[in-house]
Specification:
The complex is a heterotrimer of chains A (about 800), B (about 200) and C (about 325).
Chain A (H helix, E strand, L loop, with lengths): L20 H5 L15 E7 L5 E7 L1 H4 L4 E6 L6 E7 L2 E6 L11 E5 L5 E4 L2 E3 L9 E5 L8 E2 L5 E7 L2 H10 L1 E6 L6 H6 L14 E2 L5 E3 L2 H7 L2 E9 L2 E2 L7 E6 L5 E5 L4 H11 L7 E4 L14 H14 L3 E4 L2 H7 L2 E2 L2 E9 L5 E10 L25 E8 L14 H19 L3 H7 L13 H20 L1 H4 L11 E12 L10 E7 L5 E5 L8 H13 L7 E4 L15 H28 L6 E4 L2 E4 L4 E4 H6 L6 E7 L1 H4 L12 E12 L5 E11 L6 H20 L30 E7 L17 H13 L10 H11 L2
Chain B lengths: L10 H4 L6 H8 L18 E2 L4 E7 L2 E7 L5 H8 L18 E4 L2 E4 L12 E3 L11 H9 L8 H14 L5 H6 L11 H14 L2
Parallel strand pairs in B: 2-6
Antiparallel strand pairs in B: 2-3, 4-5, 4-6
Helix pairs in contact in B: 4-7
Chain C lengths: L4 E3 L4 H4 L10 E4 L5 H6 L7 E4 L10 E4 L2 E5 L4 H5 L8 H9 L3 H6 L2 H6 L50 H6 L3 E6 L2 E6 L22 E8 L5 E7 L10 E10 L2 E10 L6 E2 L1 H7 L6 H12 L10 H17 L9
Parallel strand pairs in C: 1-3, 2-3
Antiparallel strand pairs in C: 4-5, 5-8, 6-7, 6-8, 9-10, 10-11, 11-12
Helix pairs in contact in C: 8-9, 9-10
The chains are: A alpha+beta (about 800), B alpha+beta (about 200), C alpha+beta (about 325).
Chain lengths: ~800, ~200, ~325
């Protein structure tokens, strides 16, 4: 029976400074990018400059002769072979067929010419070293010939040299001839050319049409019932994660054949496992370290091509190798948030009822990948309340880098498409859009637990709307669209709603945390999870300190090493709801172990002992010991406890108030739009957010404000822009790929609803979802003209005004 | 290799001006001193590189030296050769501010300055603000939670330190104006504003 | 970046013999903020870099003497922005203070601002063979041209000139002092610029072996002047469109009006039409608006930058009103 969170919260829910704040702010914190190992080499990636091409030939001879050159790797599928016969310059091999995949055994003969590399047990060997039945990997340059590359930035090779500059020189000395093929990088061009196929897969053209249209009720009848109907086409572009620390890692092999990587990753355990798989190592032989991490936002869950390449270069060169992507590579090849363009038709009544909603949308995940948004979420937030809807979605493939999860994948797009339509409908109906929002909230589920989201979601949203109205001054500030104070600079206010999960990780292996208490009284918490900037290190310390009656600074937290037990990747806002309960259980178990071990030495019964701030008390016998004094009695022993947590564990009925999931949020935006310049300034954002039990109010508010700011950048500035002729992104930088600075930011009012009875819920993703929609609606409110496509740049605003005739 | 330890940093401007026929013509055109197109004498400006060049500089009060090719930036010299990693490489194109350091009292983008140009310079990075006594700027960042992933933070901290060094009575608006060359991705600006208010209240 | 040999002469005289008669092999380094970017992109691959940062004295000074203020080409943008000697030229100091962020202003120089290369994203991409890199076409013409020129007539390459200091300096009647192997020449600043159309041309008219050493602004009875620019962000950003306006007040009317547009054409663009619209008239909302309309009249925008024509009207109007000392109606 779980003991659960302490009834009296001493630290939980208060504002606790992050433990690593000073180290980060003074540059002493060592990120993976900062790791300089003795004898370390620098690696760089060679990428295809064309949006679609085939390799005709590749010549690495000159590169291998450049000063400082150490190793070269071609990007090819990894494959193990078994030596049948080796001698002279010839190698006879047979494959190791994967029986599960029903593969057949292959044979191949390799002529070992200069440029051919043979590896056995992760070391470069010569033909003479080989004997039959050795397992080898063989790199034959000719294998790269004919390889098809699907975007400008697709990886071809990697080199390592003594300095970064020499590595770049070597890279540029590799001669690759390409057969340049047709490309499509602009979604509208794909739509205009439905048969043209420039991306992989079995389909005709660049469409995925396998996604089923989804309908509910009778949409035609719904539109007939409507007192007003509007139709609009809205869209959001592909944007980049723009992690400030780029993707990459430092790889170092040890004498025993083990591999250590210092990686910028959201998943130390998964990264180590992927490397172990790639290099045929037992998982225990690979260690992934991520002590500090410079942003991931959903894009960093594994070693990636460059991570495998770094480890491969390192094994060939016999020295540590660092590959960190540069900014351009980060943008073109390390993930992005897919676009969405949708034609939305919405009908409703003056009382706010949405009678029908129809959306036909498309988006691009790059050259491959699946659905870009979850259609079932539309109309976003209001789906359960709307009786009649029709939804369809097409995936449009373009010759561009592949999408990855980005902070609430699918949600911001759905939110914009839905909420823009809601405000346009309100304008047509001549009502305050707040009326529609209140009218179409998801109803409470009377069958669900009253503490849970499902059981009270209507109430939570209603309270959030009330708070947002009050904090933003909505009732005083809202005016019909375009009917604010006249002048060059127009004021507007807008709103949008969102929802998210934030449950514990659904991974079948639970997340682990271990707590050790030594005789000096210092608790050490060990977990392999990583602190992406979410203050997870501090969360762990708060939880352990709360249980042990200490302060967070008294706890030594060791995290970000794959060897500290299992942890899932930090995605889906699952880290805090997985890790905080694991730390809770570990600390409680360590405390109980401490009581068990020390009680006999102090003449107490473990079950009479309890922790209070700074001390252990035996209330029954009216005795107490200072924490250090008590722990001192451990002697040579150590108290320890282990905790584990997962979605399945949290779903056990008695655990519902330790962690749960599903949150809602309401945001309002106030803007000033200069109608003569098209420049939009956001002056005030209000974010009302529930997240169950707040662990650290300070960091929690930071996360929410940070989400709002990311949403603001999405609304006003960000866009991956591709040239349809060259097939290349024109702004893979931070100059024309724009992100706001301090002076671009509004005052941000964050209101956290503390609901400790619901346990811990993740908060990383939800607060970024509705920001852009709220800002877009505020701009509409200011101008009375819809600016339908993000980002709301001067160009888009002025073009919309010119079309709107106002 | 054609190397020298480099001339004294402020030397050239204080050495004698050139004279000569060209200078006379230039004087007629209103040009003085260094600007004059002297025909002769023509003092040699020695070639450095392309091989590694000795770069000696002061970093956070410590005299350091390394040899780097002329193409190596100050940022890369600091990070890759001197293991001073508080300055971060993010955009590498003089836009984002993560590489900000103070050179001879002024903030610069170390990614956009050649290391050879910093010979003899006094360079200050975020690490100078740590140590035994935490500087008020990083302290305010820690107090107000003005950082998340923290990768941009040293750059912001250095920019604010320089602004307050220049004007210890700076208002929050003036400090904000000093941050137009820095970008944060996690969105820590709201908390950064709290830190700035705290700093200005304390007078830097 | 391709490696190079590096020289740091102590005088302009010592710099001159290090320069080539042709573009490409040798580059001048002033603040480095443009050159290093180009080198990192392999758009410029010099074998030799001649740094001007070792040149001191007048090269790095702002000096008021007689009827002129002379600004050395090596003066930092930050020092121009804060200069007391230049207090009569808010068009210039204001524009300097708006450039990028403090770090760039601490590094970049006057000479660099005037002689920098354009920011066209096709030009800056090594893999795009545009006109200025010896290619056969301008990719912006039917490509992504949101930030490109709107006064495109007669220009095969539709970059915008990137200098934010050039328009106010031209409006103020500045001249450039240029030193080369043949000696010194003085150039009216508007003649310093040209629209490049091929690899062997730069955005300025300097010969490859010349050095811009100073800019001189007539300072006798300085005109009223102002610069106004529209930027999407308050953070380090290129202006979308800029206008500098200067005129002499005579009783209630404006005389000797100069209107210069920035970031709308391959060169800074003197707008005679806008000047004419204000000449001899009182600067009011109506005349300033008319000047804006006149300035925009000849625009021929590309597929994606029609919005910049509207911005031309706005910036001219606002710069004229600012120069006249009117209260900015666009600020709350």
């Amino acid at each position: 029976m779980a003991e659960g969170w302490p009834k009296k919260r001493r630290l939980l829910g208060t504002k606790v400074k992050r433990l690593d704040g000073p180290d980060k702010a003074t540059g002493r914190a060592k990120y993976s990018y900062d790791v300089n190992r003795p004898g370390m080499l620098h690696g760089v990636m060679l990428r295809c400059p064309h949006a679609h091409a085939k390799i005709k030939s590749i010549d690495t001879a000159a590169a291998r002769k450049t000063p400082g050159f150490k190793a070269l790797v071609l990007v090819l599928p990894a494959k193990d072979w078994i030596v049948v016969k080796a001698g002279g310059d010839a190698l006879e091999l047979r494959s190791v067929p994967n029986k599960k995949k029903k593969e057949k055994e292959e044979q191949r003969t390799v002529k070992v010419t200069p440029g051919v590399t043979i590896l056995r047990k992760n070391k470069v060997v010569a033909v003479a070293d080989l004997k039959p039945d050795d397992v080898v990997q063989v790199e034959v340059p000719d294998d790269a010939v004919g390889r098809e590359l699907f975007f400008a930035g697709d990886e071809v090779a990697a080199v390592a040299a003594d300095t970064e500059e020499h590595a770049e020189d070597a890279l540029r000395a590799i001669k690759v001839e390409y057969e340049v093929l047709d490309h499509l990088v602009v979604e509208e061009e794909v739509i205009k050319n439905p048969k043209k196929k420039t991306t992989p897969g079995a389909l005709e053209g660049n469409y995925d049409t396998t996604i089923k249209d989804a309908t509910k009720g009778d949409v035609e009848a719904g539109f007939k019932e409507a007192e007003a109907t509007v139709e609009g086409t809205y869209g959001v572009p592909v944007i980049s994660h723009q992690c400030l620390e780029t993707h990459g890692l430092v790889a170092e092999w040890d004498a025993d054949g083990g591999l250590t990587v210092w990686a910028s990753t959201q998943a130390t355990v998964a990264t180590a496992a992927a490397l172990a798989g790639r290099f045929g190592l037992p998982p225990a032989k690979v260690k992934c370290v991520t002590h500090y991490m410079g942003g991931g936002f959903g894009s960093k869950f594994g070693p990636d091509v460059q991570g495998f390449a770094a480890a491969d270069l390192a094994r060939r060169a016999g020295a540590p190798v660092k590959i960190m992507l540069d900014r351009e590579e980060e943008i073109i090849a390390a993930g992005n948030r897919p676009s969405a363009t949708g034609t939305v038709k919405i009908g409703g009544k003056k009382d706010g009822t949405i009678t029908a909603f129809a959306v036909d949308c498309y988006g691009s995940p790059g050259y491959t990948g699946g659905a870009t948004i979850n259609l079932n979420l539309m109309p976003y937030v209001y789906g359960d309340a709307v009786a009649n809807m029709a939804r369809s979605h097409k995936v449009v493939y373009t010759n561009a880098g592949v999408a990855r999860a980005m902070r609430a994948p699918g949600h911001p797009q759905n939110c914009v498409l839905t909420e823009f339509a809601v405000d346009d409908l309100a304008a047509k109906l001549g009502i305050d859009p707040l009326v529609i929002r209140r009218k179409n909230l998801p109803p409470n589920n009377p069958k669900a637990d009253k503490v849970s989201w499902a059981g009270r979601r209507h109430d939570i949203y209603t309270e959030q709307l009330d708070l947002a109205v009050k904090l933003s001054g909505w009732n005083e500030k809202w005016h019909p669209p375009g009917k604010g104070k006249p002048g060059a600079v127009r004021h507007g206010i807008g709103m949008a709603l969102h929802t998210w999960g934030g449950f514990a990780s659904g991974s079948t292996t639970p997340n682990e945390c271990s707590v050790f208490i030594s005789k000096d009284g210092t608790p050490t918490a060990e977990t392999s999870t990583q602190d992406l900037g979410t203050a997870q290190r501090t969360v762990t310390a708060i939880v352990v300190a709360e249980v042990l009656g200490l302060m967070p600074t008294d706890v030594l937290v060791k995290l970000g090493e794959s060897v500290y037990g299992f942890s899932s990747g930090s995605g889906g806002s699952t880290t805090c709801p997985s890790q905080a309960p694991a730390a809770l259980l570990a600390a409680q178990a360590a405390r109980d172990d401490l009581f068990k071990k020390v009680a006999p030495k102090v003449g107490a019964d473990p079950k009479d002992l309890a922790v209070e701030a700074g001390k252990v008390v035996d209330a029954k016998n009216k005795k107490e010991w200072g924490w250090k004094e008590f722990c001192g009695r451990l002697g040579m022993d150590e108290a320890k406890g282990r905790g584990e947590w997962s979605l399945a564990i949290s779903n056990e009925p008695e655990n519902a108030n330790i962690s749960s999931g599903q949150v809602g949020g309401v945001q309002t935006a106030e803007v000033l739009v200069d109608s003569e310049t098209g420049v939009v300034r956001v002056t005030h954002m209000v974010a009302v957010q529930d997240c169950g039990l707040v662990v650290n109010k300070l960091a929690c508010e930071s996360q929410v404000a940070g989400g709002v700011i990311m949403g603001l950048n999405y609304a006003l500035f960000e866009e991956n822009i591709f040239d349809k002729h060259t097939g290349r992104q024109v702004n893979p930088d931070m100059e024309f790929y724009k992100l706001g600075g301090l002076r671009d930011m509004p005052k941000i009012t964050v209101h956290m609803q503390d609901m400790p009875e619901r346990g811990v819920i993740g908060i990383g993703e939800p607060p970024t979802i509705s920001t852009a929609a709220a800002i877009g609606n505020a701009v509409f409110n200011a101008l009375g003209v819809r600016v339908p496509f993000l980002p709301l740049s001067p160009r888009r605003v002025l073009d919309a005004l010119a079309k709107g005739g106002k | 290799m054609n190397d020298s330890t480099g001339e004294a940093r402020s030397g050239p401007s204080r050495r004698g001006f050139l004279t000569g026929t060209g200078a006379a013509a230039a004087a007629a055109a209103g040009l003085r001193g260094e600007l004059a197109p002297a025909a002769q004498p023509n003092p040699a400006a020695p070639a450095h590189g392309p091989g590694p060049v000795l770069v000696e500089l002061t970093v956070n009060g410590n005299k350091l030296s390394t040899t780097v090719e002329p193409r190596v930036t100050l940022l890369d010299a600091l990070r890759n050769h001197l293991d001073v990693t508080g300055c971060k490489r993010v955009c590498d194109r003089g836009t984002c501010g993560a590489c900000t350091v103070i050179v001879d009292g002024r903030t610069v983008y170390s990614c956009t300055m050649l290391a050879v140009e910093a010979r003899g310079a006094d360079v200050k990075t975020a690490e100078a603000l740590g140590g035994d006594r935490l500087d008020p700027v990083p302290a305010a960042f820690a107090d107000c939670d003005a950082q998340q992933c923290g990768f941009c933070t040293p750059g912001f901290v250095v920019s604010i330190r320089a602004a307050l060094d220049k004007n210890p009575k700076a208002t929050p608006e003036q400090v904000e104006a000093a941050l137009t060359g820095n970008i944060c991705r996690c969105g820590t600006y709201e908390q950064m504003r709290h830190a700035i208010v705290q700093l200005c209240r304390k007078g830097g | 970046m391709k490696n190079f040999t590096y020289h740091r002469p102590a005088t302009v005289a010592a710099a001159l013999p290090l320069l080539d008669a042709e573009w490409g092999k040798t580059e001048l380094l002033a603040g480095g903020t443009d050159l290093l970017d180009r080198q990192k992109e392999y758009v410029s691959q010099p074998d030799k870099v001649v740094s001007l940062t070792g040149i001191g004295g007048a090269f790095k000074q702002i000096a008021a003497a007689g009827d002129a203020v002379t600004i050395g080409a090596g003066v930092k943008l930050a020092d121009i922005a804060e200069s007391k000697e230049l207090a009569a030229f808010p068009a210039l100091t204001g524009a300097a203070g708006e450039i990028a962020g403090p770090q760039i202003r601490n590094m970049g120089t006057l000479g660099g601002s005037l002689c920098q290369r354009n920011r066209c994203w096709y030009f800056r991409d090594e893999h795009v063979p545009c006109l200025l890199k010896g290619g056969k076409k301008c990719f912006a013409l039917d490509g992504e041209n949101e930030y490109h020129a709107v006064f495109t007539q007669g220009h095969p390459c539709v970059i915008v000139h990137p200098s934010t200091l050039a328009p106010p300096l031209i409006a103020l009647g500045a001249t450039a002092e240029v030193v080369g192997p043949k000696g010194t020449r003085t150039v009216p600043l508007e003649k310093l610029f040209q629209a490049p159309a091929k690899e062997t041309q730069r955005e300025h008219t300097l010969a490859p072996n010349e050095v811009l050493v100073a800019v001189k602004i007539p300072a006798k009875e300085p005109p009223r002047n102002a610069s106004y620019e529209v930027k999407q962000r308050e953070t380090s950003e290129w202006p979308l469109v800029q206008a500098a306006v200067a005129f002499r007040p005579f009783v209630k009317v404006a005389r000797d009006v100069r209107v210069v547009l920035g970031h709308v054409a391959p060169t800074p663009l003197v707008s005679e039409a806008a000047a004419k619209a204000l000449e001899g008239k009182e600067v009011t909302d109506a005349t300033a608006t008319a000047a804006g309309e006149a300035a925009a009249a000849g625009a021929k925008p590309l597929s994606g930058n029609g919005y910049k024509v509207a911005l031309v009207k706005t910036v001219v109007k606002r710069a004229a009103l600012l120069a006249a000392g009117a209260r900015p109606y666009w600020e709350g």
